[in-house]
């Protein structure tokens, strides 16, 4: 009997302890489940302010249209950001610092002649000074750069008012520089000034080039010229000039296919386009506008030199200035090559084309 009671007691204790463990495990698991539920609750059950736009979206929209300074902030940090970093102490400029400055200028796509001019001013004006600071260099560069830009803030002639007779502009440049997009933006600008505009599909080479131009033309409701059965650019250009004269058009803009300046036969083809337009109307094209992608940096300078030599460029349109770190090329184009920068592209939208202003540019990168 004694043994039986002991066995029963032990069994009871074991059961009680098992029950206790089970209760503890149950409550622990409840607690952890409710904790997990909090994290994994579906989005629609969470009270997050989901209607508020994300900050990055807001920033992009604001950045897009505000100032040139905003568009050029990458150029500014790559150019002035690096130059500022050269100054460790307020003392005389030593030879290492001068070398660093020279290297930064060279790698900022300003062009070799421009860099030499700037360096000689820095040496003349700053080398003897006891205390040279980044502020002193900044104001010297601002003045020198502005004096190097010749008066090239001029807009295209026809943008200043209604031309007395037909104005013809030929648009040239390497593949993908932004020629057709720029034509679309130009149409928007010109139409808003009550000018009668025609665009001619002189890119008879690339598939879908005509359709791309037509889309832009339709957007601004300008006349689109692309004669059936004419598949060479000179033929299109000649007929376009004649048609524009007949229809009393103010501005005719002729698109061309992109090509590398090194492709001799394609450069010859462009020369021919120019020649036949002069036959259709002596003196035209009145503007040969070279479209350069600012991101190409030094290469843009080489392109500009070659296209200018072959065709006599009357002005440059620098595209994709938005977001590029190579905006310094504007100075190289204007001062090394002595070409007018007529307009700059600062985005892909129709309104993202603005006149070039040297003062605004210099203030934006320094
Ligand atoms: N961010 C930005 N993109 C641009 C600008 N201008 C043009 N683009 C873009 O550059 C790309 C090429 O533009 P296109 O106008 O087709 O260039 P294209 O010179 O006519 O090209 P091809 O006819 O092939 O020689 C497109 O995606 C445009 O949206 C600009 O100022 N900023
Ligand atoms: Mg094109």
Number of E-state strands: 8
The CATH architecture of the largest domain would be 3-Layer(aba) Sandwich
Spans where pLDDT lies below 50 across 5 or more residues:
21-63
Order of helices and strands: HHHHHHHEHEHEHEHEHEHEEH
CATH class of the largest domain: Alpha Beta
Please name the CATH topology of the largest domain: Rossmann fold
Give the spatial strand order of the biggest sheet. 3-2-4-1-5-6-7-8
What is the tally of helical segments? Answer: 14
* CATH superfamily annotation of the largest domain: P-loop containing nucleotide triphosphate hydrolases
Mass-distribution shape: elongated
Describe the structure.
With 366 residues, the chain is an alpha/beta fold. The chain folds into two domains: 66-148, SRP54, nucleotide-binding domain (Four Helix Bundle (Hemerythrin (Met), subunit A), Up-down Bundle); 157-357, P-loop containing nucleotide triphosphate hydrolases (Rossmann fold, 3-Layer(aba) Sandwich). It has helices at 2-40, 55-65, 68-71, 73-84, 95-106, 112-126, 134-148, 179-192, 209-220, 233-246, 264-280, 298-311, 329-336, 358-365, and strands at 167-172, 197-200, 223-225, 251-254, 287-293, 315-319, 341-345, 353-355. The protein has an eight-stranded mixed beta sheet with strand order 3-2-4-1-5-6-7-8, with helices on both faces. Helix 13 links the parallel strand 6 (315-319) and strand 7. Helix 5 packs antiparallel against helix 6, helix 8 (179-192) runs parallel beside helix 9 and helix 10 packs parallel to helix 11. Mean pLDDT is 84; it is low at 21-63. The site of guanosine-5'-triphosphate has 21 residues, from helix 8.
């Amino acid at each position: 009997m004694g043994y039986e009671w002991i066995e029963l007691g032990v069994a009871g204790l074991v059961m009680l302890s098992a029950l206790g463990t089970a209760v503890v495990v149950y409550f622990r698991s409840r607690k952890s489940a409710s904790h997990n539920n909090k994290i994994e609750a579906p989005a629609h059950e969470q009270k997050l302010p989901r209607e508020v736009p994300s900050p990055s979206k807001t920033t992009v929209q604001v950045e897009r249209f505000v100032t040139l300074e905003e568009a050029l902030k990458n150029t500014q940090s790559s150019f002035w950001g690096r130059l500022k970093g050269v100054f460790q102490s307020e003392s005389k400029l030593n030879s290492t610092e001068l070398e660093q400055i020279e290297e930064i200028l060279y790698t900022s796509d300003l062009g070799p002649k421009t860099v030499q001019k700037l360096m000689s001013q820095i040496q003349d004006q700053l080398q003897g000074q006891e205390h040279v600071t980044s502020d002193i260099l900044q104001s010297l560069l601002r003045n020198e750069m502005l004096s190097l830009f010749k008066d090239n803030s001029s807009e295209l002639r026809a943008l200043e008012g209604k031309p007395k007779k037909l104005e013809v502009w030929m648009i040239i440049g390497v593949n993908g520089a932004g020629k057709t997009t720029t034509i679309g933006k130009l149409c928007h600008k010109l139409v808003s000034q009550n000018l009668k505009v025609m665009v001619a599909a002189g890119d008879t080479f690339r598939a879908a080039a005509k359709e791309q131009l037509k889309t832009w033309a339709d957007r601004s409701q300008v006349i689109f010229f692309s004669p059936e059965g004419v598949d060479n650019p000179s033929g299109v250009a000649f007929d376009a000039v004649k048609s524009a004269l007949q229809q009393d058009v103010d501005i005719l803009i002729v698109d061309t296919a992109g090509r590398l300046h090194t492709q001799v036969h394609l450069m010859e083809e462009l020369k021919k386009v120019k020649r036949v337009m002069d036959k259709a109307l002596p003196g035209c094209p009145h503007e040969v506008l070279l479209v350069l992608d600012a991101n190409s940096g030094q290469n843009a300078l080489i392109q500009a030199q070659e296209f200018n030599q072959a065709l006599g460029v009357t002005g440059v349109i620098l595209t994709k200035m938005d977001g590029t770190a190579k905006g310094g090329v504007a100075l190289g184009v204007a001062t090394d090559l002595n070409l007018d920068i007529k307009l700059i592209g600062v985005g892909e939208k129709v309104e993202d084309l603005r006149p070039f202003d040297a003062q605004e540019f210099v203030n934006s990168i320094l």
